[in-house]
Amino acid sequence: MKISAVIIARDEEQKIGDAIRSVEWADEVLLVDAESTDRTREIAEELGAKVIVNPWPGFAKQKQFGVDAAANDWIFSLDADERVGPGLRDEILALKKQPEEKLAAGYRIPRLTYYIGRPVRHGGWYPDRQLRFFDRRRGHWGDRIIHESWQVNEGESVARLAGDILHFSVDSLEQHDEMIRTRYAPLGARQMFESGKRTSWLKIAAAGPAAFIRTFILKAGFLDGAPGWHIARFAAKHARLKHELLRDLQEDRRPRNDTD
Q1: What mean pLDDT comes out for the span 124-147?
Q2: Which of 58, 136, 186, 260 could form a disulfide with 256 if both were Cys (CB 3.0 to 4.6 A apart)?
Q3: How far is 2 from 136, CA to CA, in rounded Å?
Q4: Alpha-carbon distance 7 to 82, whole Å?
């Protein structure tokens, strides 16, 4: 078995080096760059990665592009703000020694997120299992706009690994707020709209408090201290804003008469 580590990125010069170094054990490291304007590509090339530039088509399509362009059938998919932990690396290298007929089509891996430098293990953020190691001949990336995932073909098996992907997605409260406003809430609203979901003023009012209670209390986010509080607070903002944007989409598609 040979493995291609496939990373997608755009303007990630601060993090791409650590991501690539964490998969140096792979037979190929492939970076799919969405026309970065910083040194992302140069850093990747200096570290020995193969670089392909592809204009941004969306998360799932960009990841599928990378899978199709890889030299090997076994893929480890990584984002630029993620790292492969030592335990996970050792598990994958052990699997590499096994006959392929004994392997599952894909493997779900726990992802441990660091929030402003601190690991978060509650609030629904862990283990956050991601299907990131797979045989590309036996599946494909789903077509979701956000929170995309690899889908194995019908009848194929999926197993679990124990080692963590380390996720360094949020460096500051300001960054978290911007991510919600410019990425997650708009894309989440679009995903809801296209899947046929609709909202109302009552749902908009209830979405924020419900998300806070679910994250901070029901999923024990309070055990993470201050990070847990901020995560719950932003979860509430995300839920409310997503429903507000969904309402806007509904209004834009509402049939109008000649007097409107």
Answers
A1: 93
A2: 260
A3: 12
A4: 9
